[in-house]
Batch of 3 targets.
Target 1
Amino acid sequence: MTTDQQHKDKIGVLFVCLGNICRSPMAEAMFRHLVQQEGLADRFNIDSAGTGDWHTGNPPHQGTRTILDRYGISYEGLRARQVAANDFSDFDYIIAMDDSNVSNLRKLMKGASTEVIKLLDLVPDVKLKDVPDPYYTGNFDETYELVGKGNKALLGHIRREHNL
Ligand code: 4NP
């Protein structure tokens, strides 16, 4: 089976932010960790990307690495990349961190019909609906907490849709 076919059998989840060095790699690493804990790792194809290309090839930001280290969550091998046209067919769930990611994605999608979900729209009990960008706020703890809530809600959403 080719890698492409293997990927088609799995539930594809792509986390998207602007630079792919702070929020979306944090969400990717945390979601990988969560599905491993739940015994579902082999059901998923998980990745992240940025709508911008400035950091292509770079590892996650030091602040993201520090907080993931603190919680024992691996980010091994993660490297930034830009969203590509085939992402809209390769992934079932495109998960944006904020409104500007959603509008940038719409421009990159060129009419593709893949649903784009904003992570915190899945969480009923948070007031913030955009994940704050720690590249600007410097507050990686706040981002970690919100992404954790979002990821739990996302897994619940996917479990319901896929009877997992
Ligand atoms: P991210 O944060 O979208 O959460 O990865 C940013 C990282 C880099 C830049 C902006 C936001 N930048 O302008 O280089």
Note: Residues 17 and 101 are 6 Å apart (CA to CA).
Target 2
Amino acid sequence: MTATNGNGTQPKSIRAPNPPLEDSVFKMFRMDGKTVIITGGSGGIGYEIARGLAEAGANIAIWYNSSKQASKLAATIAKDFNVKTAVYQVPVENHDAVESAVEKVIQDFGRLDVMIANAGIPTKAGGLDDKIEDWNRVRAIDFDGAYYCARAAGQVFRKQGYGNCIFTASMSGHAANVPQEQACYNACKAGVIHLTKSLAVEWAKWGGRVNCVSPGYIDTAISADCTFEMKEEWFSLTPLKRDADPRELKAIYLYLASDASTYTTGSDMVVDGGYTCR
Ligand code: NAP
């Protein structure tokens, strides 16, 4: 709609132009030819995100830290979906390593469209008797690492005038979920949620988008050591009375990564079986 001012002339608007859009909603979700970095890409959630995006046509750079399976998983994705994949060993708490790996991905793939900063550890830290070294390690990976990945990719995105970052936060950034005591993890994930909102405002100036996903309990290696009793307590506090298969997160990451979400930025997508709505 065109507005006019008092003397009938058309005032200069600050309104940004709408992006080109597909009419078909399924086409909006396509990722053909785009390059996506996924940190923690051979982990439980990361691998399923990678599969979801590859199925939609994206080429995938899997970042891992200590996994022995990363190359095999990347080869499986390439074969299953006929896309290009590659693996990079990148400790996300090392800023220089993150910056170099972003450059390497661009050399190898020719472009970068999406950064998914998903790596994280849940080590108990932040309690009165917990070790300071554990606090520092959890913060370095879960919070500093998330920022380093966004920063390195964001510098590329700003030059391009487009690009999009997705963090894996957690419902633990919303609630101090029990019975496990993990104050540092919870605080880092709350920090990631606010980092999402803050960067979304800054990046919007040049066309970048930033969002996060806050999963509830997802059945991956991260909770493999948790006891039966602990999990029973989780289920009793979750309205859907279960944890999730990581495949139940694929669609939300695809939405955020694709042009289906061109007007979504600064959002925190909570996928937690209802845990935090009680
Ligand atoms: P996971 O299977 O244990 O995956 C964790 C991933 O983080 C692994 O791929 C691991 O890579 C990577 N990682 C750990 N330390 C790293 C480091 N220093 N540098 C780079 N990568 C590192 O657990 P997940 O459930 O998929 O977790 C993925 C994300 O979801 C985490 O951020 C977690 O906090 C979040 N989350 C999980 C749940 C849940 O219930 N599962 C709920 C909410 C949020 P390597 O294996 O190569 O070392």
Note: The pocket of NAP is lined by residues 39-40, 42-46, 64-67, 91-93, 118-121, 141, 168, 170, 215, 217-218, 220-223 (CB under 6 Å).
Target 3
Amino acid sequence: MAALDGLPPLRDVIQRHGLDARKALGQNFLLDLNLTQKVARTAGSLEGVTVFEVGPGPGGLTRAILALGAEKVIAVERDSRCLPALAEISDHYPGRLEVIEGDALKTDFEALADGRPVKIIANLPYNVGTQLLVNWLLPKQWPPFWQSLTLMFQKEVGERIVAAEDDDHYGRLGVLCGWRTSAHMAFDISPQAFTPPPKVTSTVVHLTPNENPLPCSIDKLEKVTHAAFGQRRKMLRQSLKPLGGEALLGKAEIDPQRRAETLSVAEFVRLANCL
Ligand code: SAM
């Protein structure tokens, strides 16, 4: 893709700007521009879309998103060392890349969207990735401000996101994602594709909002999943005792001898609605 967008190879960019990767910032850079294009393509058409990217780093994924025709990219990056490299991309695509220096966890993405069609695409820093995803899943208003999330995680986190009942990876994250979204793992990326290579395989997860999730209070759903999966090997009559135990389960018509990991998302919603 260096030839496609005319910008220099990422290795040169990293060297020129002294962007040695910092572990504390979850910096594992993806330098293969074919792979960054594959990630960006997973989000579908970007024509007329504003893309929010978290952690552009030296800009490999940013370049792919712009080359694939996103109307605008708004990228939030915590590491100020990356800003000069990103400014070169911004100069190459005038008016189409805005970089915000800051912490994505403290960024109000909904306000930034300002009613525009938005897709979120990111190779997330491992230490804040799950929290960012949860934040994007919790808005009171649903469907949310984003059309899709295309996110790279450690594979184990990806498995928890897409897990359904009777799967070892099923837990609070799987219930939340299953309730409000349709999620699938698009493809894996081996550690060797990154600089420096992380210890584990990564995976790209694509999520789209369910238009009409079963009506339910988020707080109550969180309460029942927290209690149920807090003691996942115990029967629900035991793990849900603080929330009403057998009486609650009776009201929701769920066998008190079952365990958390056997309940479907719809059954968790029923429990929450009976709280
Ligand atoms: N997008 C680049 C790529 O694919 O090569 C870099 C991805 S690297 C896994 C994660 C990036 O997130 C780093 O550039 C890091 O500085 C940035 N980052 C870490 N914590 C952040 C935070 N709280 N808010 C915004 N960016 C953050």
Note: The chain is about 35% helix and 20% strand.
